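Worked Example 4.2. Consider the chain below.
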Amino acid sequence: MNRDEFLIRNLPDPGAARRFLADLAEKHPSHTTRLNKNEGLLSDVLTLVSYSPLLATTLLQNPNYIDWLRRKRADSGGRTKEEILESLARFSLTNSQLDTQVLLARFRRRELLRIFLRDIRRLATIAEITEEISNLADAILEHALRLAQQELENRFGLPLETDEKGRSKPAGFCVISLGKLGSRELNYSSDIDLLFTYSDEGTTAATGTKPSISNSEFSIKLAERVIKLVGEQTGEGSAYRVDLRLRPRGRIGALAMSVNDTVHYYLTEARQWERQVMIRSRASAGDIEIYKDFFSKIEDHVFSTDGFPEIALENVRRSKELINRELKTGHGFNVKLGGGGIREIEFIAQALQLAYGGGDRWLRAPHTLISLSRLCDRGLITSSELTELFDAYDFERRLEHILQMEHGLQTHTVPVGCAKRELVATRMSCSSVNEFDIELQRHTENVTSVFERVFRGRENGQPGTQAPGEVDDETGVSDQELHPAPDASKLLTWVSSDSPRFAGLAAAHPDVLKELECSAEFVRSDYKENFLSAISSKKELRENLAAIRRVWHREILRIAAADIKGLLTVIESKTEQTSLAEASIEAAFEIAAGEMAKRLGVRKQPFRMSALALGKLGGGGVDYDSDLDLVLVYDDESHVPGDISHAEFFGRAVETFVNALSSMTRDGSLYRVDLRLRPHGKNGPSAISARSLKGYIANEGAVWEMLAYIKLRAAGGDLKLGADTENAIRKIIDEKAAKIDESALRNETVNVRERLRRERAGRLKTTEVDLKYSEGGLLDIYFAVRFLQLRDHVSDTPTSRSTVSILQRLRENGSLNDEDFRAFSSGHAFLSDLDHSIRLIIGRNTRVPFNDPAIGIVASRMNLTSTREIAEQLSINRLEIRRAFENVVGQTN
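Applying the procedure from the previous section yields the following structure tokens:
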């Protein structure tokens, strides 16, 4: 049996794969030759075409996409809106001859190759896949909006409004997404439900080629243009089908309305189902602050405390009955609208949110899986029901994806013909049609059972929707005993009032707070042991991901609650979080080892791979919501099971490793893993041999990489391999730094620092300050310190990695004078404390959120009298830091 036939024989549609290879060889022989040289890529391409004739046609029409896929298939994790926007900008430059509508449609099709490959390879959860599909739509909408805005501003001038002091300022515009895009659960072939709004009335500036027009007219034209760019049909289709029927007054309503008019509509005219729609809404493109302003004014009306839960449940039940009456029976089960289908799962979540979200803000989560998980935490559905709904959602959404990606059609119907149904069953990894039918029936019956219980359970006296205080028939205890009211715990009240960021998590885990209630000190957990114990008995990847998330959320809450209570200093809190992150990495490696053993059919064993940390993890300063900056290395002389290369083996292991830490499941996620600092960045392999990494740093590493890699340390996995690599890299950097002219080192340090400032803080308003990127921010300290470390050969040591300790060593070494040391030390203490407090109380935000009501809590925590004093101290420290930075990078010894 030749290699091609070996790769093809177990695919769902071997004939489609063979036809594709023959067509590719006939039409594009050079691409066929290159493809045959890369077995891993060949396997991926054949798998894609076996699942999707649509993508087979795409690759035959655009064979260069195969080379693109070769570069992207090694990327671990999904891509953010910003990363996709960058790719779209490059795609636009290289395809500038195309009409925008065609360009956007082609770009979307190309990106689906990568996303669908991750989907069918099961390299991501269903929540991750739908989020990335949503990110793709967001990026395309943002790109279209920017083009349309520029075009219209050239013609009519910039739209202006008047502030409270009578001064003119630019008006804003926002594209609000609803439905599946609004909750980040978009399908491959979903319509996108949109609503357009602008900040306020006014007129455009008289600077265009045409006369000024009102902001209303400008915004309607802008909406029309965005719809045309994104949704107009061309010979290659459109990027998306845009549905505007959910806007105020539906088809007869204006395409765009001001925030005030839109708010007025939802407060006075909107029907119940229209308010239900707003549960799943967010800003997809444009000015996000406009959406925040809009939703803050209608939120309490959407989740009303008026009336009774029964009324909300009845209203949603009626909506579902309308769908049932309109649903055409036809041939085949409708996985979206049929009984026990996806819509029933969504309506269970939305109904209970409407019924109880008025008095419990934590329930107001737009994502179906997250909202179901929170409803379970509140006792509104049982744990067994949650598991059944989650499993059904996963099965039915993957089935929906398989159906839609066959030909790119918006279909939800499972075929009834024997051959087609058999193909669907195989693509769903079922051994037979009978097994597929049994699984589909099991999931739909489970959903229907929960749906019936939720909407008619009160009549039957069943548990789950009882009023607070009623006894749950299943547990024999009251809802108040299961889920204490907010005033049942002093520490819960404390956390809820002092940290909106952790209020919801605290309410979900009152038992954790009880442990700390009477404690006079923080008792550290054995994080690694807790993780490994949680996954020791689990067999499935999904179970392992859920287990480590539950452990992680309990531990991060323990740290945060102790932090709020004053049992931990800022440094102690970061030390605990660093240890938690390291333990999470160990758990992720353990899960990856188990998954690789299952895939290859061998016995589980540790493999020689290490996580080398940079950034906050490298310096031992992980804080709330920190990314994990990692470089993953392996020993290319170690044994790997199976008939695959080291690169293939460890590349697959990295995918599972990152998935374990980063994937969004119903239990949330742990960290965002950032691998962009690896050799060759996004274009490099996700894992690299230790030998290759050392060679790269020695022969190709740029100064900016030396500035980053000087903080490198082994943080998990095979620590001997990691420590040996760390020491070797440090020696290489010291030797290279000694040969670099000081002025060249200084200039490169300043250039890298300035580039980051322009990219990240260059668009700040005059009143905004970015703690990290602005002049006088934390990066000034970090770059000055790393410049001095390279220049004077002052490396980190196992006991001296933090910025505070390195500053002290640089002063002792004579690298830093007393005045600059004081400026950096006091400035770092203030900025770090402010950054830490904002993360703890409000959430990660490098820009100081002076307009957030909770900023007053930040001031109080820092023993400052007001937000004004924060601003004053911030200004003083930034000036001193900047002066010291310029002194360090500008001086000549």
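The two ends are 70 Å apart (CA to CA). DSSP finds 38 helices and twelve strands in the chain. Compare this with Example 4.1 before moving on.
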